[in-house]
Amino acid sequence: MKDYLIGTIQRTFEVGLEQAECLYSELLQCTRKKNLITVFRITDRPEGVTQELDQTILTALFKSQHLSPSEQLSLALTWNRVDIARSEIFVYGQEWPPGALDEAMMQALEHDRTDFVKLLLENGVSMKKFLSIPRLEELYNTKQGPTNTLGYILRDVRPHIPRGYIYTLHDIGLVINKLMGGAYRASYTRRKFRIIYAKVMKRSPHVHRNSASFIRYYGNTNLTLSLLAETLPTTKETALFDYPFNELLTWAVLTKRQEMALLMWQHGEEALAKALVACKLYKAMANEAAEDDLETEIYEELRNYGKEQDDDQTQQLLTCELQNWSGQTCLSLAVTANHRALLAHPCSQIILADLWMGGLRTRKNTNLKVILGLLCPLYVLKLDFKSKEELQLMPQTEEEHLIGLEEENESLDERPLDARNTDPDAEVRMFPVT
């Protein structure tokens, strides 16, 4: 058998007897650890098998290096092989140490690995527990991923940015306000968030607390941090977000991660509002860049879906106030984004018709009945009006909304002092009296 193998080596590799014997000795040494041997046939593979060489190498590394599951996942993520991670790493019964999948999620987001983010979500990673203020800020400051124009837009709201400037979430809020325009105010620029931000940074001094951007916004002394932080109790939840997918969608849009933005749109709440905000941001960034080459059609799938499901629920969806989006409604966001297609949608037209008709029940020949009522006042008795419950569900104009707020404020003024809301985080809004 030895002579046969040596002869085969000579014929196959076209080497002399001495070199063939050396190769034979090396083969014998390799066979002593059969568990480390992986056979990969490049030309002779069964039909339908699409195993690639890099998959074979990566699987062999898993076997030979005795890597932990976390190290295996990091290696698969670096090689961008989600198929190997799905088949070799996320197996039934696999236990993960605390925080291991969170680190993998952070790496996947930074490197724009959409498939890995989807895989980690499928395997139990909670974005609400994962996304914190420091992590979101780190994502905005990462150098990984596609080239984007965030830095150029930031210079419009923060002139004279020094080299090595680290973006704060307040800076990002100013960028969002600039791109959204109008009365939109990002949550990152509100007083309540600033208090939480200061609290988190005081507890996490390693998170660029002494950076130029942080000092410029909060000052160079610990006194400012202490005064802001004392107004908020110390809880772990203060560093988290109620709607993490909304925050990550905004991050993905601003950093030009289109596939990631689409994934974040598919998860979480307020899908239509997220789509409209994303579209407005894309359009504004396209105008900033003077070239409209960005995707602005994310919301298209929802346009007809909601209408087909339930007209009443769709109308409420378009007109309900979204606290997480600066108190805007989907309809006002559509106006801000100048989405004529959505505004021309039958549901939007029904809402506008309801506002125009007021308490009248809109049925056939309503306009004709109104004209007859003007000509003959007695005919008004034949007009149908909506019930009190239906009127409460109707959308309001801005003037009606302001009148309602004034009445609410008057009722609060009449209440005893100890029964009023004394929340220190509450914001005071002033409306002009006309």
Automatic annotation (TrEMBL):
Domain of life from the UniProt record: Eukaryota
UniProt keyword list: Membrane, Transmembrane, Transmembrane helix
Keyword Ribosomal protein included in the entry's annotation: no
GO-annotated biological processes: metal ion transport
Positions of the TRPM-like domain: 88-345
A Pfam family assignment: TRPM2
Sequence segments annotated as region (Disordered): 407-434
GO molecular function: monoatomic cation channel activity
InterPro entries membership: TRPM, TRPM-like
CC annotations in GO: plasma membrane
Protein name per UniProt: TRPM-like domain-containing protein
Species, as recorded: Timema monikensis
